[in-house]
Every structure is written in structure tokens, then in C-alpha cells.
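PROTEIN DESIGN WORKSHEET
SECTION A - STRUCTURE
LENGTH: 372
C-ALPHA CELLS:
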């Protein structure tokens, strides 16, 4: 039982449909009431159960990413109600009638993927999807899913409800994007008319825009005055827009590397949540401190051979570094190569056993999820 979803059926017709769906989806375990399994052999693999649903569902609820339940919506609501914890952790729950005429997104439609699962099942069974979240009904984007495919992360989920409500209720919402993928809007969706798009917070202030909520996409730490203007009605998203070039002496500890990285980002007023990856020379690819650091923060470590690093023009190539590594520089060229940038936010800075440079990723319009 290592698949993503669990389908549960308790009637003869429901079992038949669940087994067919399990074959079509491939990533779904099917659980069928033992009472009505007779004659269903060969239709697909399934686990039979004889215990009451109230005993089975809690186990499945915490084990799978989503539940596909072939029984009435009322029964689904009563059975899952005691299991609910948090929208960020609850699995998707989808309900189907035993004939598969309607597929209903019941729980975790956005963050848990319930709406997407509903659409997928409806397409396979030629059924009618039933989705009630306002943003989906209106055909606009969901605030809590913004940039999810790119790895964008929100500073906090607390303001999501306020911002989402403002969007679907036609209140003025400002969308400020300072960096990150420009094609953030998923294909097929539209920008609502009440959303005003800007490239900086200063534009909003200068134009005297009155707004009910805001979405900010930036890798900067906001200034106190900006936070005062935005107050608690703004969602701040951190795109993966920063690349850190790193050089270090052999055996440099993770704690020293971490201190240099975090101090540098703080000095530049940049968010660690926006770091996409570290970049260095290939001979540092097995450096224990570096590997421990990227593992702790979920960053990637990208390496380049000396020959490739040496193709990047440097203002101050180092003979000392060349004698040690075969490259005339490590952190600066590695950062530029990895980010695609033409210059640094921070050229090489040396601190103890570490050298660091910072660049911002050069995002190109046309390689995202959709377009404006």
C-alpha cells in the first residue's frame, strides 16, 4: 500500500466502478467491502475489508494523499468530520455516487489537490465534476496555490483567507511582482478585473492606490514602512530567485557556512526562502559541510568544472585560487553560470574559510505555467 490514493467502495456497483478506476489511474489502492466482493475477481487488484468504515477510514486518512469514496456525500461528511486537522495537512477527499455520474471535491480542494483529483477522475469516467471553491468557479487563480509549481513559498498562510475573499468578492487587490517567474498564471485561467498589477510597492504608494488586500512576490525582506502600508492583509510569496555562489576551504564546517550565508542574506535584506540553490566548483561537490547545509534547507547544490568556470570573465582573477582549484574564481562564476544573470547582487565576499557571491535568477517569459 504505497500508492498516492485510496478508493473505498461498499456496494456492488460501487466496487465495480472503483476497480475500473483503480486500473485506469494506476496510482490508487482500492478497498472493497468483503460482503460484495464475490464475482468481482479479475476486474482489478483490491484489498477487501470487513470492519466498519468508521474503523477503516482513520487509517487511510492519515496514510494516503487522497481518498476517493464511493458512497453518499452525507456519509462522507459524517465519517471524515472527526478526522479533520488542518487544511495544510488534511488529504484530498473526493466523493462519487456508485454510478459515477458525479465526482464531488469534498476536502482540501486547493492545497491537498482535491479539485485537480476531481477533474482527473471526471475525465476518466466521463462524469460531471462538482467543484464549489469560488476561484475555480470564477476561473481565476487560487491565492494559496500561487507559484506552487515553481516552488514559491509564502511567509505565512494566515492572510490567505482575507486575500482570497477580497479577490472573489471583487474588492481591489494589488499584485506586486518584483522577481520570480513572469508566467505564474496557470494555463486557461484569467486575471480578475479587480487585480491591479505592479512591479514595485513604491508604484502602489506613488499612485495612491486604495486596496483591500495585496499579493507581494519578492525575495526582499520588506521594510518597516512597507509592512505598515500592507498591514495584515497581504500575502508575501518568496520565489526561488536567488543563487549563492560558494567557495570554501576543505573541511569547513556546516555551522560556519550557514553563518556566512545567513549573515550575507540579512545584510542584503534578502529572504532565505528565496534561495534556489548553491553553486560551486565540482571538486567541492562532496564537501561535507556544504552537503549538510543544502540538506538542512532543501536547496540544491550545482557544481561546475574548472574549465567552465574559467570561461566567465572576472574583474579580479585569482592566481591563488587557480593553483588550488584550477579555476581563477569559484563563487562568482559559479553563481553567474547557475543563475543566468549578467552581474551579481553581491560580488565575492570573503569571510573566514568561506567566499560567497549572490545573484538573482534571470527569468524568461514563456517558460512558466501560463501567460498573462
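SECTION B - SEQUENCE
RESIDUE ASSIGNMENT:
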Amino acid at each position: 500500500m504505497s500508492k498516492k490514493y485510496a478508493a473505498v467502495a461498499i456496494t456492488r456497483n460501487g466496487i465495480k466502478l472503483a476497480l475500473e478506476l483503480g486500473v485506469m489511474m494506476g496510482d490508487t489502492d482500492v478497498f472493497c467491502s468483503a460482503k460484495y466482493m464475490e464475482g468481482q475477481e479479475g476486474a482489478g487488484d483490491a484489498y477487501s475489508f470487513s470492519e466498519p468504515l468508521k474503523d477503516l477510514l482513520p487509517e487511510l486518512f492519515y496514510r494516503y494523499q487522497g481518498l476517493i469514496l464511493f458512497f453518499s456525500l452525507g456519509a462522507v461528511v459524517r465519517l471524515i468530520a472527526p478526522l479533520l486537522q488542518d487544511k495544510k495537512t488534511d488529504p484530498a477527499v473526493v466523493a462519487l455516487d456508485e454510478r459515477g455520474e458525479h465526482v464531488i471535491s469534498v476536502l482540501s480542494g486547493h492545497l491537498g489537490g482535491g479539485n485537480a483529483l476531481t477533474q482527473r477522475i471526471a475525465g476518466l469516467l466521463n462524469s460531471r465534476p462538482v467543484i464549489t471553491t469560488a476561484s475555480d468557479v470564477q476561473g481565476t487563480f487560487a491565492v494559496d496555490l500561487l507559484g506552487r509549481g515553481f516552488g514559491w513559498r509564502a511567509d505565512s498562510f494566515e492572510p490567505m483567507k482575507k486575500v482570497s475573499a477580497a479577490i472573489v468578492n471583487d474588492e481591489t487587490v494589488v499584485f506586486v511582482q518584483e522577481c520570480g517567474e513572469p508566467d505564474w498564471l496557470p494555463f486557461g485561467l484569467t486575471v480578475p478585473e479587480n487585480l491591479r498589477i505592479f512591479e514595485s510597492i513604491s508604484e502602489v504608494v506613488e499612485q495612491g492606490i486604495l486596496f483591500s488586500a495585496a499579493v507581494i512576490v519578492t525575495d526582499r525582506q520588506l521594510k518597516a514602512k512597507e509592512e505598515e502600508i500592507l498591514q495584515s492583509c497581504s500575502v508575501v510569496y518568496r520565489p526561488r530567485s536567488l543563487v549563492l555562489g560558494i567557495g570554501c576551504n576543505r573541511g569547513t564546517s556546516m555551522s560556519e557556512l550557514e553563518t556566512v550565508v545567513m549573515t550575507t542574506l540579512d545584510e542584503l535584506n534578502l529572504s532565505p526562502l528565496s534561495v534556489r540553490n548553491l553553486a560551486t566548483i565540482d571538486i567541492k561537490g562532496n564537501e561535507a559541510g556544504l552537503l549538510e547545509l543544502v540538506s538542512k534547507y532543501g536547496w540544491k547544490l550545482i557544481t561546475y568544472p574548472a574549465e567552465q568556470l574559467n570561461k566567465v570573465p572576472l574583474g579580479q582573477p585569482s592566481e591563488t585560487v587557480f593553483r588550488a582549484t584550477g579555476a581563477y574564481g569559484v563563487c562568482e562564476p559559479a553563481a553567474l553560470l547557475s543563475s543566468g544573470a549578467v552581474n551579481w547582487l553581491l560580488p565575492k565576499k570573503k569571510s573566514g574559510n568561506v567566499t560567497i557571491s549572490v545573484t538573482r535568477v534571470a527569468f524568461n517569459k514563456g517558460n512558466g505555467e501560463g501567460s498573462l
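SECTION C - NOTES
The CA atoms of residues 267 and 283 lie 29 Å apart.
Residues 366-372 have pLDDT under 50 and may be disordered.
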